[in-house]
Every structure is written in C-alpha cells, then in structure tokens.
Amino acid sequence: MSMENQRSAAKPERDRPWLIRTYAGHSSASASNALYRQNLAKGQTGLSVAFDLPTQTGYDSDHVLARGEVGKVGVPVSHLGDMMTLFDSIPLDQMNTSMTINAPAAWLLSLYIAVAEKQGTPRDSLQGTTQNDIIKEYLSRGTYIFPPAPSLKLITDVAAFTYREVPKWNPMNVCSYHLQEAGATAEQELAYALATAIAVLDAVKASGQVPEEDFAKVVGRISFFVNAGIRFVTEICKMRAFCELWDEITRDRYGISDEKYRRFRYGVQVNSLGLTEQQPENNVYRILIEMLSVVLSKNARARAVQLPAWNEALGLPRPWDQQWSLRLQQIMAYETDLLEYDDLFDGNPAIERKVGLLKDGAREELAKIDAMGGAIAAVDLGYMKQELVRSNARRLADIETGLTKVIGVNAYTETEASPLTSGEKSILTVDDMAEQEQIEKLKEWRAGRDQAAVARSLADLEAAAREDRNIMESSIACAHAGVTTGEWSETLRQVFGEYRAPTGITSMIVTGDEEDIKKLRSRVDEVSEKLGERMKMLVGKPGLDGHSNGAEQIAVKAGDAGIDVLYDGIRWTPDELVRNAIDEGAHVIGLSILSGSHVPLVREVVNGLRAHGAGHIPVVVGGIIPDADMLVLRQMGVSAVYTPKDYQLVRVISEIVDLVDRKSTEHPAPRNIEGKPEGAGTAIY
C-alpha cells in the first residue's frame, strides 16, 4: 500500500462541523438578500437575520419612533413583500435560518412560513430558529412590547404551533448572550437563562395546548443562544455546566426520559462587549480565543457559531470584515484536526472542579428566583435587572481601576497607527436615503393591497388574542392578506397593552470610597451650591435603541457622585425627552444611542430645546460614533461626545460637572411645558 493510501486509511472519521453563520442585514431587504447570497457562496452554511429596530419593536418604517432607525442595525421587514425580497432565490427548504426577533417573533415566523408557502415549500420542511426570548429583553436588550404575561402566552403559542406544524423549527432560543453583555457573571448567565426556559416550559405545560405524551417533543426543540467571553477556561466550564444542569432539569422537573430530548442544543455569538475601539486589530485574537471555548469541548460543542467582525466597536462591518470572521470558522472546522477527537476535557480535575462551582452558584441563584415565584416575578420585582446593573458596575469599576486589564485600553496602550482603519471606507455606513426609500415602498404596498382582506384578518387576529386562542394561524393569514408589522403589533397592543420594564437603577453605591470619587462628590456639592439646588442630569435614550447598559452605568456613577439622576429607561421620542428635561429642571442632558441613529435623533433634541427656549441646557452624547459624525454633532451644538474608549466614568462625570458649572449656572431652566406626555415622569434617586 502506498504511503498516501496508508495515510488516507489511517485518517479518523471527522464529526460534522457546526452551522457556520454570519449575523447580517442592513439598509433594505434587497441589499440584505444580496449579502446573504454572497455569504452563502463563500461557504456560510446557515443564515442569521438581523432585523432593524422598528421591526424588532413592532413598528412600521414610517412610525414617529422609527425616525432615523430604519435599516441601521438590521433589515426592515414591514410586510410579506419585504420578506419575499429578503429570501429571493434562496430555497427555504434547503436553508437553516436563525431570526433574532423577540416581541414580534410570532409575526416574523408567520411571514417566513407565508414566503415558504409562496415558494411551494411545505411547513414541515422548514428548519431554523426564532429567538423569541422576551424575558431577556426586559433585562438587557430592550426590544420588548407587551407585558410579561401576554409575552409568555405568545411564546407558548409559537412553541405549541411549531412542534405540530413545523417540527424541525426551534420555537425559542433562550438567550443568555445579552445577559453577559449586560454584566452577568457566569453563574447569573446560567441561572437567568435556565429560569427563563423553566418559565416557558411551565407556561406551555399549563396552557393545555400540548398533550402530555407530546411534551417531550417541545422540550427537545428548546434551544439556547449563549455568549462566549474572554475568560477562556470559565467559558468552557460554563458550557459544560449548562449541558449538565439542563439534563438535570429536564429529567427531574419534567420527567423527560429520552436523552435526545434532554440534550442542551445551543448556538453562540462570541462576545461583542469585549471588542475594543482602541487597537481594534487585537479583536481578531479575542474572537478566536472566545470561539475556541465553545468548539473545543465535544460534549458541550455549539451547534451553530456566528462571529462578530473585528471592527464592530467602530461601526457597521463591511463584507470583507464579515468574510474574515467566516474564514476563521472555516479554518477551525476544516483545516485543523479538532473534529477528529473525543472530548478533550473529560476527567480533567480542574475543569470538573470549576464546573461544580458554577453549577452550585447557578442552583443557588435559581433557588432565589424560584422563591420569588419564577422568572416573570423576578422581572416584575426588578430583581434580575438590578443584579445585572450591579454586576456590570463592578465589572466596569475593575477596568477603571486597572484590576481587570484590557490590552490597548488600560494596559499596553502604546500603539502604531493601524493600516486596517485608515481610509474613508474602513467601516460600512447606511445610506440616509434607505429610510425614505423603504417608506415609499411601504406606502405603495399599503395602496396596492385588498383593504377588506386586511381588515378581516386583523379582526380574526384580535379575536384570537382576546379569546386566548393560538394566534399563529391568524397571523399567517394576516401575512398573506398584506398586513404590516406595525398593524399586527398595534392590534395586539390594543389587547395586551404595553410595558415599561424596571430600569434596575437604585441608590446603591457601587464604587466605594476611592479618592477620585470622593473628590468628584465634593465637586458636585460645590457646583450644586452655586446652582442653588442639587445638580440634575437627565439620562435619555431617544428612539428605539434598547441597549441601555451604557446609560445605566452613567446613571449609576452620576448618582454615586451625588447628582440627582433623571432616568426612566428606553424608548422615548426626542420631544418627550426635551419636555421632561425642561419640566424637571435638568441642568444637563446625556443621550445614549448605539444604533447608529445618533445624528438625526440628537438633531431633534437640540432643535427641540432651542424651540422651547432651553438651548442653554448642554447636551452630551455617548455611543458608537465615527469621527466624522462627532464633527457633525459638535457643529449642531453638542457639548461633548463619548465613545466606548471613554471607560473612565469618573473622568466622564467630572467633565460633565465642569460643563454644567460653565454653562448652566446663569440660565435657570424653564419649567412646565403644557402637554407633558402622560407617563413621562422620571425616576430620581
């Protein structure tokens, strides 16, 4: 036998690689479709759809709250026509599609099924996942619409419908990813995600929609979407703990005897929170290390992996940047010998010890949540949100003091200029005309449909919701009739109402009595004495961006410094924030926007202040803001701009206090504008 034949005969059998995805979508359905087909041609094996914020929060592209947000962080999908364009020339019976959609998950799944039916593809052949995790939206990402109880009903409806009609579909991706981004420790990520899964399965069981003999099938379709951070060994152990705890819960709590239904199935995106604006080329190494933690351990290996691009801390990545991350996965899956071996960590005493500690910590936290009445009660009480804010404050304080080292940020900051970030097109920007074009197409769609059919389908949807029937078939009928995302959501808003989640901001002192915070408190006292009242800062999130971590930490640090903080969470119109700031007598306004819509939204706030004679109130802005946009913001009157590189929050707050001292003491703020919106009060601590 030749040496080559001997080599081939000795080569071990390889496992199938995980699904290789890229989280993508922007501007329009047609532009996103072109990107998907391009990525599939490069070897991507599944799709992961990013929707824009209006779609995620159930608004059409021409709603007032959608202004500036259309197509920015994902693709706008307002109706069946958009969904058909999005998947044009992509046969859905051959595709595994993940959709990062939560509050309107039932609607986007209905549109997807309607597209398949238009393609002649039977429902039972569809494969994929709707994230559909509302509980984590209340805690971290903020794209919720309805209160917890009806949200849980919608998740239940999707789960009960799909196990019968779309049996290869994962009706819910319990998402711990954003919990870690919001500051969760490994134990909290384990506990809060598992508590969410328990709440959903308990609700499905109590609904009576699934016969007892079929319940195991529903359990077997619940999947998870997790975060892999930079603490490599901890992340490996966390995933092994997830697998063991889920096996334990499904066996002991739900009596599932078949091991295949107890398997912990998960996808992962590695941690975008740890990507740095400074020395962004280092992010390539971070992404690799974080991916290794979810692929090395065979018994806890991810079923699907999507990696961020190295420059996501700077802005929207280009196709080349996404390709770089795609190639990283392919090299690991196809060039290395990783998939030829059994689990590399079985029997390792250090790993087993750490897994045991994580499981103990998670069980302890689960017991606390269970004693409160479960995950829904813990959301309503504000417990989980407050704990995440507290954990995140500690994490940031450790970076600020240097206890946690971040290379290029607070350690080894000396650097050469990067050729990767030079040039005008180092990041992708969304054309401002994309929003107007989407709105025009939406108007054409509305004008061209059968209005009577739309009215009938919406009436049936409302009746199903009011009568506590499963809404999925009614929603699919709405999709075929031409109903829009905003109309579907508004119908259910009328039935279920809307919700404003607890902010998690309390008067807790987090940063202790270090010398710098003591000096800052004294400075705040000094400026407050000049003002003749305690200094007030309104922290606001205009538009639909629900990533509130930065706003929360600014609010916590400002409160720690002795400033009266006016903060009432996410999703306010610029006009509401202007009126609130004036009525409450704010001395400074801090706006946090991470969706890329900072220019139009900040312009509306600044112009609104001037229109009400309050242009003297200084405005500062934080977000992922390119240098060119910083200049635009400065020119429109913004006093200061902060980006993720400004991690030293004591310095940030100190500069804001100095700003108030310079600009605000001579101008008492006008108060009591008529027509202050109901519910626009503030949480002051």
Automatic annotation (TrEMBL):
- Coiled coil residues, start to end: none
User: Metal-binding as a keyword?
Assistant: yes
Keyword annotations from UniProtKB, A to Z = Cobalamin, Cobalt, Isomerase, Metal-binding
Q: Which CDD domains match?
A: MM_CoA_mut_B12_BD
Name its species.
Answer: Thalassospira permensis NBRC 106175
- This chain belongs to which protein, by name? Protein meaA
Q: Where is this region: Disordered?
A: 664-685
Per the record's keyword annotation, is Metal-binding included, yes or no? yes
